[in-house]
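FORM 12-B: Structure-to-Sequence Request
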């Protein structure tokens, strides 16, 4: 899918490959549960969650993996130990197999993001 032209997250998920749809739907559910006060939007062709007009979290179905974008350096730094064993770019946590997504880690990252405002990178 890489960059979708979906108008909303429901359409985005409907267009996702069946093999990844369940994991993407679960990521969305976690975001909606944990990111109270955030607005769900489509940004750069992917679901994003913004506070005060700035995206702090996003996720996407990429060609080779599912990406989870953690756009707050303070949260990334606080979880450096737990993130070190994962495939992590500058702000992108990559899950190559949907069944191996660490949803507990994702939930903890979402909670930390929601707990305090910060500056996205």
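FORM 12-B RESPONSE
SEQUENCE OUT:
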């Amino acid at each position: 899918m890489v960059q979708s032209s979906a108008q909303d997250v429901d359409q985005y998920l409907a267009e996702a490959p069946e093999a990844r749809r369940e994991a993407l739907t679960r990521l969305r559910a976690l975001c909606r549960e944990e990111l109270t006060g955030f607005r769900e939007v489509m940004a750069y062709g992917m679901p994003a969650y913004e506070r005060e007009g700035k995206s702090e979290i996003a996720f996407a179905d990429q060609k080779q993996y599912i990406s989870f974008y953690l756009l707050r350096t303070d949260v990334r730094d606080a979880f450096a130990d737990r993130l070190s064993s994962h495939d992590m770019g500058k702000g992108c946590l990559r899950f190559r197999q949907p069944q191996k997504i660490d949803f507990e880690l994702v939930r903890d990252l979402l909670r930390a993001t929601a707990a305090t405002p910060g500056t996205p990178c």
